[in-house]
Design a protein that fits this description.
Largest sheet: 8 strands, mixed
Shape: globular
CATH architecture of the largest domain: 3-Layer(aba) Sandwich
Helix content: 40-55%
Strand order of the largest sheet: 3-4-2-1-5-6-7-8
Oligomer: single chain
Distance between the termini: 14 Å
Amino acid sequence: MTRILHVLDHSLPLHSGYTFRTRAILKAQEAMGWEVRGVTGLRHTAKGADLEEADGLLFHRSTGDAGTLPLWREWREIGVLERGIEAAISVWRPDVIHAHSPALCGAAAVRVAKRHGIRCVYEIRAFWEDAAVGNGTGSGGSLKYRLTRALENRVVASADAVVTICEGLRADLVARGTPAAKITVAPNGVDLSLFGEPAARDAHLARELGFEIDGRACPVIGFIGSFYDYEGLDDLIAAMPLLLARQPDARLLMVGGGPREAHLRAQAQASPAAHAIRFIGRVPHHEVERYYALCDVMAYPRKQSRLTDLVTPLKPLEAMAQGKLVAASAVGGHRELVEHERTGILFPPDDPAACAQALADLLAAPESWERLRRAGLDHVRSGHDWACNVARYRDVYQILPLERTRSGLAVA
């Protein structure tokens, strides 16, 4: 039986898009008959045992201290995680070490893998130097940016095989000189077994939020996620007065939180559309479906940047899986997921007027809604269901022994 050890930045029981993708991969691999475990680094901040079970999955925890001095801290993190991987394989020797970005995880994993003659896969979910720029913790072209990119390139070159979540990342690696044959795309997906019938609309909650007028349900635009600058939520709020000019009963529901929350709340309060915008804050994961059920359209107005052009988000796929209409800005990551006027609608990024027009046109054409919803769900089923996507990893793992033999490395 194949054993896969996944090397991770963080994991369940923490909740994030990163941990949900990890859970989906590990559960789907278990369903394939493989044994799986994870090992996390110091950025997993939840308290727990050194070997912890979460949602039926086992995770080894690395322990230690990396200090606070920049660059030295990251170097120490790699060392701590390296020792954590060593401890894990001393009690549970895997056939494959499968590291997931950031490059800190990959650097620790390739070191241990080469030392023990274990095959190593490195999976990139985003280039973390670009993610740092997008979330405001870094700047393009800085020393840290260049060093992170250099480390990424080194890990990619050292790994036996590379996986990315989308074509944008794959194309960028090929442009850097990585052989195309070394890279496999395992696209973002959802575990459709978790999505049964969509939750029923909670009429009491809708009335409480002011989403009914004279007993009629208002059309609701929703965003549920993290409030980062690159998400373009300021453009969505700026679009609301223009949308109300054509759809006076429209409402905007904002669920979540993050670095831009205070700014966005202030912007909404100062807007002529303030009466039509509701902020809920963060909600427990098990309550998210209640708010999805209130929404007619899920909006994803990401700003155009290197990050958003290269990386595909998970949220639009989750919305399609729940039978929601999807409206998204036409950045590269969205264009990989949404086909305009077939599985959703696309509008120019960084343009509140274009966003408002697209939403108004969609709300004015309810006869198209069922077709769009059905096509969106079919798209997820055919290309983004983890029960099917997991087979891509089988193909990657099967070619690894041949690749290691070619490179002159021992095969475990």
